[in-house]
Every structure is written in C-alpha cells, then in structure tokens.
Amino acid sequence: MSSTSSWIKAAIFDMDGTLFISPFNWKRIKEKLGVKGGLILDHLHSLPPEEKREKFILLEKMEREAVSKGKPAPEAERILSLLKERGLKLGVLTNNSRVLAEEILSRFPVEFDALITRDEGIWKPYPEAVERALDGLETTPEQTVYVGDNRLDIEAALPFKFAKILIINGSPQLRREYGKRVIFLNSFPEILGEIFPGEMLN
C-alpha cells in the first residue's frame, strides 16, 4: 500500500456540505434574517446588540432544523478513519456554531485535532479563520490539504499555499472560474486518491 506524500501532514475540512450533508435553504435563511447581500455573519455582526442577539437565535434555530435532517457525507466516516490511521491530523473549519458543530462531529468515529467555529469571532472566507485552524493543527499550508464544497471555501483557501485545495461537487460556474487553481472532485471518497496517489476506496 502506498503512503501519502511525505509533506502532507494534515487536512482541514469544511463541515456543512462537505463532511455533513444537510438541506440548508440559504436563500430562505437570508430572507428570514434580512440579509440582502454579502455574508450572513457580516450582516448579523453589524446589527445593534438586541437585534443581533435575536437574529442569531433565529439563525441557530434554522441551522438546527436543517441539521436534524442531515447525515454524514457518503463514506466520510471511513475516509476520515483511514486518514487518521495514516497519521494525518484532522481539523474542521466551519461558519456554524460550536455547539452544533460538536454535536455533528460526535457522530464521526474519529477525534478531530482542531475545531474552529464562528464562536471564535472569526469566520470564512477571512484569512484569520484559516490561520487559526492551521495553528490548531500545528501545521503549515504546504503540509496541509484543504477540503470544502463552495465559493467561501475557495476564497478562504486560495490566499494560502496549501498542498492541495479540494472542492467536492463544485458548481459548473465555480469549475469555470477556478478550474486551474483548485481540484474539483465528484464525491468524498475521491479525497483518498488525492492524498494517497493511486489509491481507491475498496
């Protein structure tokens, strides 16, 4: 069995849409929160304190509703276990809350080495969030693979010299825009072959 490239020591994963698939209706969520453009978290943090508190409660309610209908991505549990067995450190960087993230990640059969959520006061796509995840894993971008599923993940990862940026099920538009800068995958199990070249999940 071949081994991973010697310089890859860790992997940072997005959670919602990558590790865990939930039926989030982001258009509806933005409408309910009064977000007319830009990032949800940027908008909520710009509000007066009382309105901010109320909107975060509403956001968390809608997030929990979606997550209650979700499940781990196909083969994600198995792939994570294999990566962990091979000695990789595993981190999660999510714009979700810590409480909900911990509940979701407790369903996986591995212990994550770092978890960065919006409760740290930083979030994607801002570089401080990625830097915090790298610090938590005690690694460098060059030694790390970043795995996500959407534009926020790409924008968060591109300023760093990651060993690889892997985007699962990216839209045709994202593939046109970033096809030369990131690697697009069609399913979670393909991650294995990108980290351990030549290997496939049996």
Cα(first) to Cα(last) distance is 13 Å
CATH fold title of the largest domain: Rossmann fold
- Main sheet specs: 6 strands, parallel
Average of the residue pLDDT scores: 93
- Overall outline: globular
Tally of DSSP β-strands? 8
Structural class call reads alpha/beta
The count of helical stretches stands at 9
Q: Can you tell me the residue ranges where pLDDT is under 50 for at least 5 consecutive residues?
A: none
Physical arrangement of strands within the biggest beta sheet:
5-4-1-6-7-8
CATH class of the largest domain: Alpha Beta
Approximately what portion of the residues adopt beta-strand conformation?
Answer: 5-15%
Q: Specify the helix fraction band.
A: 40-55%
How many structural domains in the coordinates? 2
What does this structure look like?
This protein is of the alpha/beta class and 202 residues long. It folds into two domains: 10-22 and 72-195, 3-Layer(aba) Sandwich (Rossmann fold); 26-67, no CATH class. Helices cover 41% and strands 14% of the residues. The chain is built from nine helices and eight strands. It has helices at 26-33, 40-45, 49-67, 76-85, 98-105, 127-137, 151-157, 172-178, 190-195, and strands at 10-13, 20-21, 71-72, 89-93, 114-116, 144-148, 164-168, 183-185. The protein has a six-stranded parallel sheet with strand order 5-4-1-6-7-8. A two-stranded antiparallel sheet has the order 2-3. Helix 8 links the parallel strand 7 (164-168) and strand 8. The model has no long low-confidence stretch (mean pLDDT 93).
